[in-house]
Records
---
Amino acid sequence: MQTSVYHTAVLLKETVDALNMKPDGVYVDVTFGGGGHSREMLQRLDSRGQLLAFDQDPDARQNCPDDARLTFIPSNFRFMASYLKVHQVTEVDGILADLGVSSHQLDVAERGFTHRVESPLDMRMGPGMPQTAAQVLNTASAEELTFILKNYGEVKLAYRLAQRIVRQRELAPFKLSSDLRPMLKGLCPPEGETRLTAQVFQALRIHVNDELGALREFLEGAALVLKKGGRVSVISYHSLEDRMVKHFFRSGNFQDEVKTDLFGKPLRPLQPINRQAIQPSAEEQAVNPRSRSAKLRTAEKV
């Protein structure tokens, strides 16, 4: 497992191993972050190999190694297929995606991703996002907030919380994490407040960054640009993402409606490699507690 100041790469060996890399292949890391996965991938490429790395976070560029085989693309991975065309890449041998928020983003209070320290309610992963979390809290209707909290955070009593938020912003706008936390009091037993807070922050982050929409476009693009026999490895961290990945790998759509040909063979662009998601070992979880919820799924282009 590789550590940098920016981030500790999760399931490093397992994820890269699953790509079954060829030394002279063309690969994509769509969530470059601290560069841990990319460095491992570069070690498995020879001088003919090529790696294209995506990250919408401007801070990620500073982690790029000085390597002629690496091309860094400052963009959200939802645009992967389009940017590969710009770089005259029509097909790739493998794609890696780590969908987690980086340790750097969590630890820098100004980014607003964590509820554990006082921070502005920002949560944008890149400067191109149209709204901060504070703007969402201050402008969305109670119905819109209920949808966000219920569908992206699986928050119980979502409508009740949404009503509290709407009433509170009439007195003072939401700016800091400390403005939001008091809204959660009494919605669950005291021992459940940390989990509830995490769910609320997750819901806002997913909405602000349109994470599920981006994941949908990325998976569809991956199925198009992979060569036959090429693989895509995806690490997810919550059930919403993992369900989307599992369904798309299994059925080729997000409704998980398996369609078959006349011979009963599933009509899908990708073939899952493992029946069950791979999770970090107890040793890795002990060293890196943030890896505990990680699930790795890999599929191959058929």
Note: The longest strand covers residues 226-236.
---
Amino acid sequence: MTVKDRIRMFAVGPDDPEEKNAWIEALSEAIDENSFCLGSKTEQFESTCQKRLGVAHAIGVSSGTDGLKIALAAAGVQPGDEVILPAYSFFSTASVIAQLGAVPVFVDLDVETLCICPQQVADKISETTRAILPVHLYGQTAAMDPLLQLSEKYSIPIVEDAAQAFDVKYRGRSAGSIGTAGVFSFYPTKNLAAAGDAGMVVCQDDKIAARVRLLRVHGDTGGYRHEMLGWNARMDGFQAAILSVRLEKLHQQQEVRRRNAMEYLETLTNLDLLEQVTPLGHTEGSDHCWHQFIVRVTQRDRLREQLSQQGIDSGAYYPSTLPEQGCFKSLGYRRGEFPIAESAAQTVVALPVHHRLAAGDPARVVEAIHKTVGVLAD
């Protein structure tokens, strides 16, 4: 098997020479405009996203991680406060809370979607809860309606971790625009991908937006006057220039991702694999950008090894729960407290779904799984 034949997990970089030239032209314009840290290219990208997402404010930052930290701080999270989040996500969902001196309060997941369970959130709200941090995992949103009811009942802000869900809608509203603030990542493997680290905070509230803009530039109100402690977390103009180019193609690429996901589901059904290889359920009211196509398999690691031998990449996102990370050991969580999250960490497999796959590639992946499932059963 040649390298060309291998089905890769991600598609990074320009799609073709034409797009590469568009990148170079956009970067050249950024250089000519001295659009380096923030600047005109970042302002143009922010303006486009503001209109596309239907938000009052779209604020470019240096990464999704920095965006989460800034959004939580802007929403009022301070040292000693509690923030409720799912026990299963990328590490930065939890790390930014601890970096602010706040306390991550983990809850288990919805068994069908692996997004945060609203009932578990309700059970964990206390007098020191200062934010709820749902994660829109794998490309669809969490169930936001019950979380919004909790937010209103207890006057607790919601900061959406929408890192994996750019341009996704929940009941007609853009992910990120539903709570107090939302955060996107444009890491190179995302559906809208930069050529390095970049992120964005979006919100509807003018006061929250003003705090975010201050916090991304060291809390500087101008003239080296610092009214609050912030960070160096600006989006650079080069990333904004490339993101503007890529945003023009996003709809077309999303259609290919959707086609690939439907081909997976159809082939899994046709080969009668849905019991052994179980796709995630769908959040009612949410559409999907298919950041990942996720299935759950009992012998996950052996399956991935077999697929690799057949020239097919896969991923395990994520092989551990957040409470099990060594840096959170002092919080005192014990194995067995989050059974759904713990099961996910052992069974989740991500299959290639990106826009460079050809029609027929997902079927080839499922056919390889079909052969492998028989081997694993022996």
Note: The mean pLDDT is 96.
